[in-house]
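Anyone up for a design puzzle?
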């Protein structure tokens, strides 16, 4: 007899996040500006526990756009030194959100 394994459900346990809790701030850098002008992709700092579907839903609600693709990166905090002490900056999560062709986000 063949037993079928159920596909794991990728629902996150924990509190449900509101859209303004998922997207923390847009990242306005030279590289992010290049992505937005040429590829219609925007970068955001997002909550580290947010999933791609939560990020997609939050950007669509907050900016009234249609999201085509979401890519995420978990960024490790850099080592920093202040006088004689060595510390580490905090870890954070970055999301690159690509929009459909007819949508734009204007930050300025």
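Challenge accepted. My sequence:
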């Amino acid at each position: 007899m063949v037993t079928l394994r159920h596909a794991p459900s990728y629902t996150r346990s924990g509190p449900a996040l509101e859209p303004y809790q998922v997207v923390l701030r847009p990242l306005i850098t030279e590289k992010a500006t290049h992505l937005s002008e040429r590829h219609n992709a925007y970068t955001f700092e997002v909550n580290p526990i947010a999933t791609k579907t939560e990020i997609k839903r939050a950007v669509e609600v907050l900016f009234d756009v249609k999201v085509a693709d979401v890519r995420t990166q978990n960024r490790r905090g850099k080592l920093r030194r202040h006088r004689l002490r060595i510390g580490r900056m905090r870890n954070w999560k970055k999301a690159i959100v690509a929009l459909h062709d007819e949508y734009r986000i204007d930050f300025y």
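A detail worth pointing out: The longest helix spans residues 52-63.
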